[in-house]
Amino acid sequence: MDKTGTLTEGKLKVSKMKISEAWNGRVQTLCTLICAAEEHGASAHPIGAAVFREALQQAGGYWEQYKTNGSAKDVHEVAGQGVVCQVNLGENKWRLVCVGSLKLMEENGVSDQASLPRKVDYLGSVCLVAVDGRLAASLILQDTLRPDAKVAIDGLKARGLQITMLTGDNGEEAQRIASQLDIQVQDSSASPSKKLEHIQALQKEGHKVAMIGDGINDGPSLAAADVGIMIAHGNKCLSAGGNVLILASKLQSLLTLFTVADGTMKQVRTNIIWALTYNMLAISLSAGVGEPWGLHISPTVAAAMMSFSSMGITFQGLRLRQRLLNDE
Asked: Fewest beta carbons less than 10 Å away: which of 6, 92, 146, 230?
């Protein structure tokens, strides 16, 4: 299962923002650069949206000036890591801005990574900001567990399912959420491609894998899993990789999904047995197999009996629907 937006509400808030000494007294300028980088992708991921909201609040009037005179180019969103772009605040000077994970900073050659604490005395998601190759700020974001998460996880476990977390968030935050749900962390700080590798590795071991996510950064793993289940986050679902789309943004809908699936497969098996038995009996009687015992039907009657077979299966389907409605 994914974490952000799936096990958690996905409504992150910046709980702490630390600015490097080089940007002291220029917080509004720095926040404007952050907003410019996150502007186009703010709706694509809860972390990006939270960073944008916080930076916008602190940018004040500088943001309006940027919207009038500034611009951004070469915007490159790295799935599961963050965004890199060039920003001009209207001073005819382009600045390289990186907003995202530690891995993104390392891949873009950001220096002074040790100048800001990344391990804090409380847990949360960490987002780093670098300008022109130097670390400028760190933000700590915290999310809350979905109210129905524990009930849903316990219900899935009661079905004999093994539940693990596969997230792009840092290990400390992943462990905080996992400990509340009593589940294991399969991997943290995992990119979409890394998630895909985990899914494929489990399948090679002979496991049947269901991947559950909100469709953000989960597309490849949702598509590769034996069953990909997407839980719509608000009014948005940004991936078409899954097999099942749950529109109700509730984890307890997973229990309903498995109840429907189990009931449907049980009914399918019953229908197959019923159809085979019924039709074999009708065909045998019409062929004269029962004549020594005085049992015989004409081919015309046997054909008519086929209709009753179809009606019986339809009736069983309606009964299943009613049972599922009563269970709700």
From this structure: 92
Instruction: Kindly report the number of other CB atoms within 10 A of residue 234's CB atom.
Output: 10
Structure-token pair, residue 170 = 């840092």
Cβ contact 209:199 at 8 Å = yes
Parallel/antiparallel/unpaired status of strands 184-187 and 94-100:
unpaired
> Rounded CA gap, 324 and 100, in Å?
45
Query: What are the strands, taking DSSP E only, across the chain?
Result: 13-19, 71-78, 82-88, 94-100, 125-131, 134-142, 164-166, 184-187, 210-213, 227-231, 244-246
Distances (CA, A) of 192 to 125, 133, 164, 215, 238: 17, 25, 16, 11, 14
Identify the pLDDT of residue 122: 47
Q: Is pTM, for the whole model, over 0.90?
A: no
Give Cβ neighbours of residue 37 (< 8 Å, ≥ 6 apart).
72, 75, 83, 84, 85, 87, 97, 98, 99
pLDDT digits over 60-87, tens only? Answer: 899 999 998 999 999 998 877 889 999 9
The fraction of the chain above a pLDDT of 90, given in percent, is: 41
Q: What 3-state class would DSSP assign to 250? A: coil
CB neighbourhood size of 145 (10 A): 16
Under-50 pLDDT residues of the chain:
117-122, 235
Angle between helical axes of 46-59 and 27-38 (0-180°, round to 10): 140
CB contact at 8 A, 135 and 18? no
Q: Contact, 297 vs 284, CB < 8 A?
A: no
Tens digit of each residue's pLDDT (9 = 90 or more) over 81-98: 889 999 999 888 999 999
**In this structure, are residues 297 and 233 in contact, taking their beta carbons and an 8 Å threshold?**
no
- Give the side-chain half-sphere CA count within 13 A for 56: 13
